[in-house]
Structure to design on (184 residues):
């Protein structure tokens, strides 16, 4: 069987400011993204964000950062690249010129699989274009199916935790109450 090449998205590059990343409390939804955007925008007042290039293609999102390292006596330019597969971008949200997305990538340091990344674009139009391209990746049927399955498992796990935490909870009478009532 031949591989089906996906060309539903034209490769594009965006030069943006990376506001930062923070753990997400959920897989999809503005209720998980908005508090992180607010936090990162507040932090931006104290810590200058660095510039990165985002390359969006049918394969996913590539984050490219140019850094200067001091190895030896001469500064050396290095390029750091991170690839985020299309099936790990669960949602995208636009707040003015800021684009934020939730990524389903395990971080061994924090032991957290969900992160919100936020980027500031140079204009509302650029932010809108970036959002539209990311939506094409997110809305692929195979990705939507995968995200729905994960949400189902998360919901089931929460229900199990609720049941476990209620086991042994107050049933109305305790042993002591029963014993003391028998003594009377």
């Amino acid at each position: 069987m031949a591989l089906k090449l996906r060309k539903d998205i034209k490769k594009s590059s965006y030069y943006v400011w990376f506001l930062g990343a923070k753990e997400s409390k959920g897989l999809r939804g503005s209720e998980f993204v908005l508090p992180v955007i607010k936090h990162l925008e507040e932090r931006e007042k104290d810590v200058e964000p660095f510039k990165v290039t985002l390359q969006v293609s049918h394969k996913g999102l590539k984050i490219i950062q140019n850094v200067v390292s001091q190895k030896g006596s001469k500064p050396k330019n290095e390029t750091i690249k991170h690839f985020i597969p299309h099936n790990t971008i669960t949602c995208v949200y636009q707040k003015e010129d800021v684009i934020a997305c939730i990524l389903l990538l395990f971080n061994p340091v924090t032991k957290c699989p969900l992160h919100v990344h936020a980027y500031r674009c140079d204009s509302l139009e650029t932010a809108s274009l970036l959002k539209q391209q990311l939506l094409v990746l997110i809305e692929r049927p195979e990705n939507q199916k995968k995200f729905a399955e994960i949400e189902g498992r998360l919901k089931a796990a929460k229900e199990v935790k609720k049941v476990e935490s209620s086991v042994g909870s107050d049933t109305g009478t305790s042993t002591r109450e029963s014993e003391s009532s028998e003594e009377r």
